[in-house]
Amino acid sequence: MYYLIYFAIIVLIPLWAQMKVKNTFAKYSRVSVANYRRGAEVARGILDANGLFNVGVEEGRGFLSDHYDPRSKTVRLSSENYHGHSIAAAAVAAHECGHAIQDAEGYAFLRFRHLLVPVANFGSNASWILIMIGIFAHISGMLLLGIIFMAAAVLFQIVTLPVEFNASNRAMNQVVSLGLIGNREEREARKVLNAAALTYVAAAAVAVLELLRLVLIFTGMNRNED
């Protein structure tokens, strides 16, 4: 019974967060900003105002595929946000520019997250192989090694939280101070960014819960061996 409740939680939390961001984005993608600026124009305005003339703004592919690429110094916006002149487009564009500003300033958590990328990628791929072998073969040492690798991936998700929240705060400060959205539109833009942040919070929460469950399995296995 407890396992059914647990698995329901780790499935429902991410689904709820994804539905929240999609519904919020859909709502505010239909509300135009008063100045009718496109997302690409909002991004370019923020970057230029911060002296980031070397950072490009490009149209990307895929729904809500918006991101900042630190390797090519490029803000890539999905078609909806690149061409759109909605509150949602402005908020998302500003958020990605927040990452560009973080990169230019050497924001500590962003640099730490970049360092964790190869470790987290390896950990997320290798951990479950070791964990499954450890559980089914009753090899506690193998399970522990898998847990350690998974912990690296979980750490990456936890470090992502301050990076994303900081980018959103920077985004709101930029769009308001530069007059890229009106004062009355600030609340709606913040709702878009808060909904997007929920997906990262949900992912981190589920990852921590799963890690704790495996730690309990490991301690139980050791107790049985004793």
Describe how the helices and strands are arranged.
Layout: H1 2-28, H2 39-49, E1 56-59, E2 67-69, E3 74-77, H3 79-83, H4 87-105, H5 108-136, H6 140-177, H7 186-225
Parallel strand pairs: 1-3
Antiparallel strand pairs: 2-3
Protein model, in words:
The chain is mainly alpha-helical and 226 residues long. The protein has one domain (2-225). It contains 7 helices and 3 strands. The chain has helices at 2-28, 39-49, 79-83, 87-105, 108-136, 140-177, 186-225, and strands at residues 56-59, 67-69, 74-77. It has a 3-stranded mixed sheet. Strand 2 and strand 3 (74-77) form a beta hairpin. Helix 4 (87-105) packs across helix 6, helix 4 (87-105) crosses helix 7 (186-225) and helix 6 runs antiparallel to helix 7. The chain is elongated and about 70 Å long. It starts with a helix and ends with a helix. The model has no long low-confidence stretch (mean pLDDT 91).
Features:
Zn_peptidase_2, 3 strands, Zinc metallopeptidase, 226 residues, mainly alpha, transmembrane, transmembrane helix
Rg calculated over all Cα atoms: 21 Å
Strands in their spatial order, largest beta sheet: 1-3-2
Count of folded domains: 1
Distance between the termini: 27 Å
From the helix content, strand content and strand pairing, which structural class follows?
Answer: mainly alpha
**Uncertain ranges:** none
Mean pLDDT: 91
Protein name: Zinc metallopeptidase
Organism: Bacillus salipaludis
InterPro entries: Zn_peptidase_2 (IPR007395)
Transmembrane segments: 128-156, 192-218
